[in-house]
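Thread: 2'-deoxycytidine-5'-triphosphate complex, take 2
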Amino acid sequence: MEREEGKVTDVSLKELSRKLEEFSKERDWGQYHSPRNLLLAMVGEVGELSEIFMWRGEVAKGLPNWKESDKEHLGEELSDVLLYLIQLADICGIDLADAATKKIIKNAIKYPPKSQ
Ligand SMILES: Nc1ccn([C@H]2C[C@H](O)[C@@H](COP(=O)(O)OP(=O)(O)OP(=O)(O)O)O2)c(=O)n1
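Output below.
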């Protein structure tokens, strides 16, 4: 994990996965973290994420007019989705870093860039 001025600037999916496993183990929450429960929890967090954008109309890139507290809330909900996604991949035995990297390559083959 890399930090700069108290801020994490880089972290791997594996590091997050390890931290989540530790968090769950310390609380004995593994019993609740079945694939289906994690999927439902993730979808619930996608709902919370959607609520932040609800009724605002279109939003400018970079969210220039948003309050800091709203941006912070957005970061938390995005993180909840990511953290459940990582746990879901782990419990299903999917290496998300490998799968996502391979998918980007597959996408590039399916959608080649326009030739100049
Ligand atoms: N059984 C659980 C419960 C929570 N979490 C973790 C993953 C999420 O990052 C976060 C979700 O916590 P909450 O359910 O409290 O949801 P929020 O943080 O969104 O709180 P609220 O719904 O009150 O806004 O906690 C988890 O791993 N396993």
